[in-house]
Specification:
There is one protein chain. This protein is an alpha+beta fold. It has two domains: 11-100, Beta Barrel (OB fold (Dihydrolipoamide Acetyltransferase, E2P)); 125-282 and 323-425, Bira Bifunctional Protein, Domain 2 (BirA Bifunctional Protein, domain 2, 2-Layer Sandwich), CATH 3.30.930. 27% of the residues lie in helices and 27% in strands. The chain has helices spanning 58-65, 118-123, 125-128, 132-154, 193-198, 240-261, 263-268, 286-296, 311-321, 371-380, 389-392, 409-416; strands at 19-31, 35-42, 45-52, 72-81, 89-100, 158-159, 165-166, 177-181, 184-188, 206-214, 227-236, 283-285, 325-328, 341-342, 345-349, 352-356, 359-366, 402-408. The protein binds adenosine-5'-triphosphate (ATP) and magnesium ion. Adenosine-5'-triphosphate is lined by residues 215, 217, 224-225, 228, 230, 360-363, 406, 408, 410-411, 422.
Length: 437
Amino acid sequence: MAVDPETRTYAADAEPGREATLAGWVHEIRDLGGIAFLILRDTTGKIQVKFEKDELDDELVETALNIHRESVVSVAGAVEAEDRAPTGVEVVPNAFEVISPADPELPLDPSGKVEAELPTRLDNRTLDLRKPEVEAIFEIRAEVLRAVREQFRELGCTEINTPKIVATGTEGGTELFPITYFGQEAFMNQSPQLFKQLMIGSGLERVFEVGPIFRAEEHNTPRHLNEATSIDLEAAFFDAGDAMDAAEAIVTGAYEAVARNCRSQLEALGLAEFSVPDGDFPRLTYEEAIERVNATGELAEPLVWGDDLSTEAERALGGAVGEHYFVTEWPSEIKPFYIRDLADDPDVSTGFDLMHPSLELASGGQREHRHDRLVVGFEQQGLDPAAFEYYTKMFRYGMPPHAGWGLGADRLVMTMLGLENVREAVLFPRDRQRLSP
Ligand code: ATP
Ligand code: MG
């Protein structure tokens, strides 16, 4: 009984009165003596298969009821209405085949009756994703990325793919993973920043990329990965405000698409009440932000101008604002060299962060497109402009003003679904302890 993808019936589509061939995993077997039930599970859901032993071929009954849970099988038979069956229908089999048997002992219980710790889950992602609430995360992640691409296309952006093996980092030495490239030192790219900017001076003008970024973060936190997926925008003639508008459109567009197209996945995650942000995120200047944080009284030491927002500060501020928000006009000294300063105040930058109440989602700003200032910026950051000549050179041949941002896809999914650890939103996360699988 070969399973033909063209004629196979999925559990959710089985209709009473039809003959069907189904295939999937054995979720459960309940043998009550004269009658037994096998619950078959496939990507669409579950369906009951009924074995009235007196009525069926002995060999068929024997084969079906002696296999272990999670084996892959196919069943052919008549679909009948049955009120007592979990989905209101059941299959009366006339053929049964074991396609791939499962061992009796499993490293993780896909029925979820026995809970597993995150490391065990990550070691056994194949089995972990047999749980509907885990599969749902990755269905939603796929929908988020689909919606993001669609929004970018509506904004007139072209999708690009830039190299991940590079000669120099984006922002210099720290957090870089060195590799050997034919006997020469090279690095895994921290961000597509410089490459996407190079495309601003090309005929493309507005570009986006969805791709991996690599950070040799020393610390193990619930929101840092060593390989993350970044959603990046760069657009000619955008200022920081335009870039923030685009971030609002992308983020709310992703929420809307998930609310519209992922109902069953949201239900599997217990998120039937999923709400879409209104798309008009408050924009606080850095100065207002530190005042708000200090006013909460939650920090042991009040923040002063020039301090970065610590995790505690982000949490206090997020609690006070209570929705997505931007922090704008950061001190220039704590933003990278490629961010442009305000025209009337070199101490203040056009840099901004997009925040979820619980953590940072994106960083962006208007870029420094004036060649001379850019070179000075490199020097001020302790970088050798000569090593970045491939980049700075292009600012001498006609580079429009531009702005953009990088948004963590993993953090977007994590915060959207209220996951406690960013690793839950990543199939095979890379962190200090984890290089395999
Ligand atoms: P943080 O301060 O939270 O470590 P960052 O400011 O170093 O983040 P950026 O360089 O601004 O990060 O990168 C832009 C976005 O990419 C971040 O806002 C975040 O969503 C995502 N991102 C960056 N580094 C990581 C990481 N190590 N793990 C997961 N996501 C990351
Ligand atoms: Mg940042």
